Amino acid sequence: MDQIFKDLADPRWWFTAFFVAIVASLLAGFLKDAVTRWLSSTSAWYRQRKAATLSRQEQKLELLVAQPTLLTLHTMLGSVTLLFFFFCFGMFLLLPVWTDLMNSSPSFSSWILLRTLPGSDREIWVSTVKLLIIILGAMSLLTGFVAMSELSVSARAYRRLYDRMKADHVKPSQG
What is the pTM of this model? Predict the structure, then answer.
């Protein structure tokens, strides 16, 4: 039991846990369609739920295609969310390294100006960084999912808008 508490106190454990969770989230995104098809073929409840979800998505797509300005804003929102994901994920990757350097290297500690902190304040600072690692890992999971979902909808709406505009400009040949 003591080893479990030691592992939970180690930022490397949290980093590894969230890194694995992010990779699993990416894999789940790829497997989602196959699982959805399997569930809809086996469950009437899931088929109804899926039909309602597709209906809502279709309404959203039609609204975005009907209003190109709204589509542009939707794409910008997805892009800003993606940038926020990269920031959170970058900080998530850097904080464990920074914490290890701060604990192991006296020159790094003096460069960071933590050399002047008393021992208990330094431990509070390191605990705060560990909490930030957990928060940034969770935010990376959430913002990555939201960004990819929104940008996927935008891409589908742009494709549909392009196909409609292309169909409107192509006139059948007169023979």
Answer: 0.64
Within a domain: 175: no
Residue 87: band (very low, low, confident or very high) from pLDDT cuts 50, 70, 90: very high
Neighbours of 22 (CB within 10 A): 16
Residues 32, 24: Cα–Cα separation, whole Å = 12
Residue 154 counted as domain residue: yes
Which residue type sits at 53?
Answer: T
Greatest Cα-to-Cα distance within the chain, rounded to the nearest angstrom: 90
Q: What is the 3-state secondary structure (H, E, C) of 137-155?
A: HHHHHHHHHHHHHHHHHHH
The alpha-carbon radius of gyration of the chain (Å, integer) is 24
How far is residue 90's CA from residue 132's CA, in Å, rounded to a whole number? 12
